[in-house]
Amino acid sequence: MQLFSCQYCSVPIVSYKPRTFCSKACQWAAGRKRYRFICLECGTIFYVNVAQRRYCSRACKGRAQSRLNQGANNPNWKPTKDLHYTVRHALRKRILARDKVCQECGSSHQLQVHHRDGNHKNNDESNLTLLCVQHHAAAHAARGEFAIARLILSHRLYHQRPDNICQNCQQPFRARTKQIRSCSPECAQKLRNQGRSAAFARKRDAKQQLSSQLDLPFL
């Protein structure tokens, strides 16, 4: 009996004959060429049998791609559209922080940014003011822009949401339509569970009634 060591995993081997590997798996693994890499996301050292690998797992690859493919680095990014949306959103936030309420009636409900001179390309803050939907439509109607005024009023009617009562917690909430029965996903799940329990109870009662009519044991 002699003592040998596996050349791949360094496990001691006791054998009568000289042996290089402890198993067929080590022999097969040692025959494959393996490359040493460092994961670019987590810094873990790993070995693979391919010549190019940047990440040690799919999770690290997903996190890296989510972080790197943002904004201009994303191949689907559209500079003009995204930049225009970002500037408009930031400008609206500044006007809301400055005026806070409608400059005509003092309302704080359904506020919109209005251009004083009617030029939508003139986004200077001195040309912008905050108006509620009603006064915003009236300002455009006073200039003869009735189509824009109707569009603003239709926007107000679309976003005017009725008050509903949650059928689970009986709390009032605002929704687009009267058909919505729950105020949150938790209440919706509870209502679904109640519906399943009621359906199961109806099936059980029907089975009991049928068993009593046929004089059969209820299972």
Provide structural commentary.
With 219 residues, the protein is of the alpha+beta class. α4 (133-142) runs antiparallel to α5. The chain has a two-stranded antiparallel sheet with strand order 1-2. A two-stranded antiparallel sheet has the order 3-4. It has a two-stranded antiparallel ribbon with strand order 5-6. β1 (2-5) and β2 form a beta hairpin. It has 4 domains: 1-32, no CATH class; 33-77, no CATH class; 79-158, no CATH class; 172-214. It contains 6 helices and 8 strands; from the N terminus they run ββαββααββααββα.
Shape summary:
flat
Query: Uncertain spans, ≥5 residues at pLDDT below 50?
Result: none
- Overall number of strands: 8
| Structure class | alpha+beta
**Residue fraction in strands:** 5-15%
Q: List the total number of helices.
A: 6
- Describe the strand arrangement of the main beta sheet, using strand numbers: 1-2
Features:
4 domains; two-stranded antiparallel ribbon; alpha+beta; 6 helices; 15% strand; 219 residues
Gist of the model:
The chain has six helices and eight strands; from the N terminus they run ββαββααββααββα.
What is the element layout, followed by pairings?
Blueprint: E1 2-5, E2 12-15, H1 24-31, E3 35-38, E4 45-48, H2 58-68, H3 79-99, E5 111-115, E6 128-132, H4 133-142, H5 146-158, E7 163-165, E8 172-174, H6 185-214
Antiparallel strand pairs: 1-2, 3-4, 5-6, 7-8
Helix pairs in contact: 4-5
